[in-house]
């Protein structure tokens, strides 16, 4: 199904005419997205500990927090950098990013204790960074979000209607066919991207919405408009909304319903925004007139830049203790305990049946296919790059003669083909980093795991990698005058195809471990340089240092490709010896054809310490094993690693 074919009955919509107006558009209420099942979100004695590396003892980064938020309200988690607000948000969403973090306490929805799997049915999390596929359109982005999350019992027609309604409700219907935007193609504005991020989560009708730093990177005016939109969203759709926010402007601060002020992992205040001034007045810290309350409070509880650190810590501890013993804090604790003891209604989950593995894999394949032919960085630039490389190689090694003086030149050409085919696979890193960002977001929201992601990535890449290899071989093989036979050509193509599959597997593994472009590029380039050194061309395997030989040579896919290509070229070919001044033949490689002034190609294979008895089946089997190993290790990294 092509997302561009989504149709829906015409409905009155409130859309944006220009990008500059995108944050001024109102929200069109749609009953489909209104929350009528989640009545409260509360947490009791919530703490997060992490093991200290030096002392090996648990260190509290969030301590004994209580609170609750009702539908239609926006709770803002505030505090200085390192105060624990992001940890608090992730804890409430059951998204702690490290296995070393231990969560204690209880999170309740409608008074019922909840788990990550239960919460994922009613809640969605919007990342601080807009993790979107830049080559997809707005409509496709929301549609794929629906396809990955909605129950299989929902029909295609109903899903299409949901997508249409979501686009309409968020004021982005007129931008439905606009691409999100890539480095090479301009797309929608930053405010519209934020709306698309929320819409792609809201299309599944969540009742609770978590947003991490929704105003990050925006100026004060844009921040106010974004927050105005989020508060309108909460009220119109009766959603429970929890956000983390650093230092809002005065006008943005006034839009918030509830405030949870944190410092050093402990609560300094929790309650309605309107109660802040009176509370801090009471404890001896009045908020000055004509001062941004958020700025004043952050300065009040921030000890990082204090000249007298010990005095500042005593001051902060006093604020913590004052809150913990205050009547307001006791009231909050009693309300939370009351909510946990008296269920406010059975939690009705509309869609508990997620798409099965096959459906998820097919959806990811469809999305990857759209990206692959639209995003020039993914494959188009690589196709052009390898084609240019083939033309260069074919014209440099142009029509090599079958003479002994060309034997080393042939081997150089073989080495160049395999080594640079794999080395240039680093061009795939940017596209895979973007894929990883989407995977991280969607996995955290409970949509799918590493297996369908890795499988879809492998399957979508195979035809493109084969096309790259075929185009390279068609040009370079015949221009250079490699063994002129169909069998030789297809074996040459097969080895280079396996070489590229292995190289891309290496890219996947390294980038999965270190999903930072510059780092992944450096490590992958280093690994390819290592493979070139120990592959058997620069230093023959027979004279290679035993450490490099037994530790790296046998797992070097370039080594097996080089051996296979040398056997493919030399096993059945014969070369002319040079004729000496005395009329006798001067053969560089002695063979049984020396008397005829010929060199049998098998002796060249033997000279490089390869065995001319090795079969292509054996070498291809080893290559397939290396390819599978890279993918399995890459899968294992994604299973074990929590971003």
Number of domains: 3
Helix content: 40-55%
Number of strands: 14
In whole angstroms, the N-to-C terminal distance is 32 Å
Uncertain runs with pLDDT below 50, 5 residues or more?
1-27
Q: What features would you highlight for this structure?
A:
643 residues, alpha/beta, Rossmann fold, 3 domains, 6-stranded mixed sheet, 4-stranded antiparallel sheet, 22 helices, 50% helix, 12% strand, elongated, disordered N terminus
Describe this structure in words.
This protein is of the alpha/beta class and about 650 residues long. It has three domains: about 1-35 and about 135-205, no CATH class; about 40-120 and about 215-345, Rossmann fold; about 355-540 and about 545-560 and about 620-640, no CATH class. The protein has 22 helices and 14 strands. It has helices at about 85-90, 115-120, 140-150, 155-170, 190-200, 220-235, 250-255, 275-280, 295-300, 310-325, 325-340, 355-375, 375-395, 405-425, 430-445, 450-480, 485-515, 515-535, 545-550, 555-570, 600-605, 615-640; strands at about 40-50, 60-70, 75-80, 100-110, 110-115, 125, 210, 240-245, 260-265, 265-270, 575, 580, 585, 600. The protein has a six-stranded mixed β-sheet with strand order 6-7-8-3-9-10, with helices on both faces. A four-stranded antiparallel β-sheet has the order 2-1-4-5. A two-stranded antiparallel ribbon has the order 11-14. The longest helix has about 30 residues, at about 450-480. About 45% of the residues are buried. Residues about 1-25 have low confidence and may be disordered. Keywords: ATP-binding, Membrane, Nucleotide-binding, Transmembrane, Transmembrane helix, Transport. It is a multi-pass membrane protein. It is found in: Membrane.
